[in-house]
Amino acid sequence: MVNAVLDGLAQARHSAVHLELRDSYQPDDPEFVAWQQGKRLDPAADRSTWWRPFLDVVTETTARGVAMRRARVVSEPVTDYIRYEYDVTFPNVVAGESVRWLSRRKAADIPLPGTDLWMFDSEAVLFTYFSGVGDVVDREWRTEPEVLRLVESAFELVWERAMPHGEYRVV
Predict the structure, then answer these.
(1) How far, in Å, CA of 137 to CA of 129, rounded?
(2) Cα distance between residue 11 and residue 135, in whole Å
(3) Residue 4, C-beta contacts closer than 8 angstroms, at least 6 positions apart
(4) Which domains, ranges and CATH numbers included, belong to the chain?
(5) Sign of torsion over alpha carbons 105, 87, 162, 109
(6) What are 31-68's pLDDT values in tens digits?
(7) Contact 21, 82 (CB under 8 A)
(8) Which residues make beta-bridge pairs with 101?
(9) Could you tell me how far CA 169 lies from the centroid of its own chain?
(10) Is the pTM of this model over 0.85?
(11) 147-156 burial string, b = 16+ CB within 10 Å, else e?
């Protein structure tokens, strides 16, 4: 399933946007469990201690001139999972991805798609479907013009209202 995202990034020519709408994902993720047990990434430590393989893809993609933007719509106060995501986002920013955060309250009047997604070059959307607990169940590519318009409009409204990662504070 992750290969679909990697394929989209490899083929992207100018933009890749990622909209995240859930307050929790994969509760059994080993990295999340380690974070719950006190593991923290240290930006001052050797980069190899916090660099992940996906960040090589981000670096390669942005080096080609592709703008990568991620927006997260979150409930406040945030869940432990969102706190974890916030803590582990700095490497994405270092790799070249722009990340913003928006309180769900400030997104209440935005028509949002029903699930997380990636959109590449405003030409294709990859929807990700989750179980109730946050495990990935399926992914689906969509290219219909009305779907592309909805996704692009929703993402841009979220992006406009959202706070850059460096300014956002988890509550």
Answers:
(1) 6
(2) 26
(3) 126, 139, 141
(4) 2-164 (3.30.870.10)
(5) negative
(6) 999 999 999 999 999 999 999 999 999 999 999 999 99
(7) no
(8) 72, 163
(9) 17
(10) yes
(11) bbebbeebbe
